[in-house]
Predict the structure of Histidine phosphatase family protein.
Amino acid sequence: MSTTILLIRHGETAWNAGRRLQGHIDIALNEAGLAQAGALGQALADEPLAAIIASDLQRAQQTAQAVADVKDLPVQTDSLLRERCYGAFEGLLYADIAARYPHEYAQWQSRQIDAVMPSGERQAESFRQFYARANGAIARWARQYDGQTIAIVAHGGVLECAYREAVGMTLDSPRDFQVKNASVNRFSYADGKLHLVHWGNIEHLSAPAMDELG
């Protein structure tokens, strides 16, 4: 049996727009993000969803709720679907991280997958640790709804982990693909393996589709 997974990045937040690192900080959608979530819900109205699952951070939950409202399904939450924890980097602009933590920033940008950022309010994760957490959570939900179709609303980093897993991309290679807000990314899960079907669908965010929401 193959499970179909619609893996979705949350809608835009003010911190996304301003290039401020969120990580585990719980930031809500901005006005644009709420509109994206509404368009997403309408776009998935005819999908035969058995479940809607979201990270427990509100930007993911708000996005998932827009789908749930259309499908009349509850949103199940899972903290293991959170974005990577970046420790002391969280809450800072990317430019400020580079200035304040030049060595650790360089490690991050050069994809040293076992490097860990300085701790802040929370303990940071290495990319390898995050990759195992995120893909383990996706696999667990896929097995729980074996043979059905589910929507999982998470974060850019989680989607990156799934993409790398599905196409066999090494963890330390540069990211040569985009992860867009409110994008729908279709995977299948069978025999313990994640497979990529379609990446980066944002047709529902086109001007005519958004205009239909009023």
User: Anything to note?
Assistant: The CA atoms of residues 84 and 130 lie 6 Å apart. DSSP finds eight helices and six strands in the chain.
